[in-house]
Write a structure and sequence with these properties.
By secondary structure, the protein is α/β, with parallel strands linked by helices. The protein folds into two domains: 87 residues, Rossmann fold; 121 residues, NAD(P)-binding Rossmann-like Domain (Rossmann fold). The protein is 41% helix and 15% strand. The strands form two sheets. It has a six-stranded parallel beta sheet with strand order 1-9-8-7-5-6. A three-stranded parallel beta sheet has the order 3-2-4, sandwiched between helices.
Length: 281
């Protein structure tokens, strides 16, 4: 194989998103509005705390505000719902992000669905998912939206292509499958109960790896010329696809780190700014 695959890097996409956001943030400032993202973290999960900090830093870099709410691990569903209600009713907060996962005693779906749809910048409500599925304007979950934005940025066609999504989580696998379907791809969703996963993957034109297992997807399962979008991020800075073997088959592939992750955070800020614009009108 003589040709090098296209590396679908996040940075050029992030730069393009931030360029537009800076203009929108300036326009809001002229009306005395600073976009504000509230992040709610329940408990002391180290990875979650890191993600929340990264999101706050990204806000700061763009001149946005972030409000951090840190609740103890023993918080009840009722207490969390009250915190979300207060944020819903706070006009200076434009977007609300409840960091996943929450402790076991909390009804996560109830908490997600308590977020006002106009502030659901992370695309976690049932209403948001339904609207996105029916192609009604909504804030789509940030990682699926990041994947679509990257495919568009690098001019990778989706219509008529066979996309295989590995993973069926509510905030990644399912919404990215629906979005690809809405873009006229033929979509197969695979998961832990799928029989003979390699047989499904060898027919894929586009693979979305969203399974949460390090280096799980092997290049030998893929056909030549496939596009690999790796949304995984595992200890040791590795994705869900085995990059070394997949890169030998791929025509285009995302690196980990430096691929989907940075665009996910940029998408969250993009949604927050859009929410601020919508709520200011």
């Amino acid at each position: 194989m003589g040709t090098h695959p296209l590396l679908i890097e996040g940075k050029p996409v992030v730069d393009a998103i931030y360029r537009d956001l800076r203009i929108a943030i300036e326009q809001l400032a002229a009306h005395g509005v600073v976009p504000c993202l509230a992040t709610v973290l329940v408990g002391d999960d180290a990875a979650s705390a890191t993600y929340v900090r990264m999101k706050a830093n990204a806000c700061k870099k763009l001149g946005m505000q972030s409000q951090r709410v840190h609740l103890p691990a023993e918080t009840t569903t009722q207490q969390l719902l009250q915190v979300i209600a207060d944020l819903n009713n706070n006009p200076s907060v434009h977007g609300i992000l409840l960091q996943h996962p929450v402790p076991d005693q909390i009804d996560e779906r109830a908490a997600f669905d308590a977020i006002a749809p106009e502030k659901d910048v992370d695309g976690v409500t049932s209403v948001g998912f339904g609207r996105m599925t029916y192609q009604v304007p909504a804030y789509v979950s940030c990682t699926p939206q990041a994947i679509l934005t990257m495919l568009d940025h690098y001019r990778i066609p989706m219509a008529g292509k066979h996309a295989v999504v590995v993973g069926r989580s509510a905030i990644l696998g399912k919404p990215v499958a629906m979005q690809l379907l809405n873009r006229d791809a033929t979509v197969t969703i695979c998961h832990s109960k799928t029989v003979d996963l390699p047989a499904h993957l060898e027919r894929a034109d586009i693979v979305v790896a969203a399974v949460g297992k390090p280096r799980f997807i092997q290049g030998s399962w893929l056909k030549q010329g496939v596009v690999v979008m790796d949304a995984g991020y595992n200890p040791g800075n590795v994705g869900d696809a085995d990059f070394e073997s997949c890169v030998l088959r791929a025509s285009a592939i995302t690196p980990v780190p430096g691929g989907v992750g940075p665009v996910t955070i940029a998408t969250l800020l993009q949604h927050t700014v859009r929410a601020a614009v919508a709520q200011t009108k």
